[in-house]
Amino acid sequence: MSKVKSLLINIVVIAIVYFGVTAYQQRNLLTADNTPAPYFNLPLLQDSQQRMSIAQLQEKTTVVYFFAPWCSICKYSMPNLNAAYEEGSINAIAIALDYKTPEQVKSFANELQLSMPILMGDNHTRSNYKISAYPTYYVINEQLQISARSMGYSSQLGIKVRTL
User: Which of 83, 88, 112, 150 is the most buried (most CB within 10 A)?
Assistant: First the structure.
C-alpha cells in the first residue's frame, strides 16, 4: 500500500511541476479568452508577391504556428502540424520569424516537406503576438479570436485537441 501511495504522490508532484513550468513559460503570451487576434498581412514564402492577412482566416478555426528555421523543437513539431493540415482535420498556417534570409526558411520547409502556407513574419508580428520562444502557436477561432495557445513541442493529437 505504501508503494502505491508513494507512486501517487510522485505523479501528483510531477503533474504540479509540469503545469507550473507550462504556466510560467506562457505567462507573457496573449490570453486565450477569446481576445481578438492581432492583425497581420504577410507575404507567402511560396510566392512573395502574394500576401495573406488574418481576415482570410475568418470562418475557420486555424492554428497559427510561429517558428524559426534554426529551432530544433520546431523541426520535430512542425511535421505533426503539417500532417493534421494535410489530412484536413485542421486549418493551419506557419509564420517564420528570426530568419536571416527567405532561402533559409525555404530550405527548412523543403527539408520537412511542408505543404501548409508559410508566411514571412517580421519583428512587428513577433511583438504583436508576444513571441519569446519557439515554437509558439495560437488557435484562432472563426471570429478571429484567440481560443487557445501553447509553447513548445506538440504532437498531432495535442494540436487537434486544442482546436476543439
Answer: 150
Assess contact for 43 and 119: CB atoms under 8 A.
yes
Per-state percent for the chain, helix, strand, coil, to nearest 5: 40, 20, 35
Between CA 136 and CA 119 the distance in angstroms is: 15
Which pLDDT score is estimated for 21?
60
Tens digit of each residue's pLDDT (9 = 90 or more) over 116-131: 999 999 999 999 999 9
CA distance 146 to 137: 10
| CA–CA distance, 164 with 160 (Å, rounded to integer) | 7
Find, among 104, 103, 47, the residue nearest to 74 by Cα. Answer: 104
- Banded pLDDT at 71 (limits 50, 70, 90): very high
Asked whether the whole model's pTM tops 0.85, one would answer no
Q: What single-letter amino acid sits at 10?
A: N
